[in-house]
Amino acid sequence: MSRAIASGLRVLAVANQKGGVGKTTTAINLGTALAAIGEKVLILDLDPQGNASTGVGVGENARPVTTFDVLAGKSTIAKAAIKTLVPNLSIVPANADLVGLESEMMMEANRPFRLRDAMMALVADQKARPSEVPYTYLLIDCPPSLNLLTLNAMVAAHAVLVPVQCEFFALEGISQLKQTIDQIKGSLNPGLEIQGVVLTMHDARTSLSKEVATEVRAFFGAKVYETMIPRNVRVAEAPSHGKPILLYDYDCPGSQAYIKLAHEIIERERHLRAA
Predict the structure, then answer these.
(1) In whole angstroms, how far apart are CA 214 and each of 70, 88, 139, 202, 218?
(2) DSSP state of 12
(3) Class of 3-274 per CATH?
(4) What is the pTM of this model?
(5) Given this model, what pLDDT does residue 6 score?
């Protein structure tokens, strides 16, 4: 049994160095869907743009403590977490302060392990407070690059969830991402796995979407979830209203897809627990 499952907290990094693939949208809406089916979820916004924070209704003026403070050792994850509009869903927000963190940490030997250490402190904090319901999932929304922030996320995570857009050049960089994951697994985090690959912005009407889905399934095999997130205007609109799609429009195809994806991930997790 992995240390992830043994601790009761699963840490998933939502990562793809290619921008515009629905990474933040997936982190927000998957977190909401997991919370809706009974999990206690914490999103950790590790992108200096802070879009995940905005997308769950936490404005820039409502972020007194951020992931910068956590990585800089000025705060714990537990103290930095803010409750969102969604029951059982909290977030550690981010802002542009993260941009300067890489240069600050460059000379420090433990720089890849900052987030892992903070995550382990969170696990210890939860064990010390048995009366409080502990987090069961921590989703890390990574920036769209393979930088020190993403490295911290993958060293801290138990598995990586990879969103892949059903567009031309979708596989561009995916082999590099897989190579990076394999390198981290071989050196800094032996337990790291790809939890799964989710196809986003899928349009069943186009042959391109079908071709990309076939290519990604050929590359990753059974790692690709059956559930595909459709291209949906309501999903694109929701962040500008500061709401996950499940709150913005529960009945739209995008909402229902994220609920199905959450169930599929939980089922995959159950198999891991049984292994």
Answers:
(1) 40, 36, 27, 12, 6
(2) E
(3) alpha beta
(4) 0.92
(5) 41
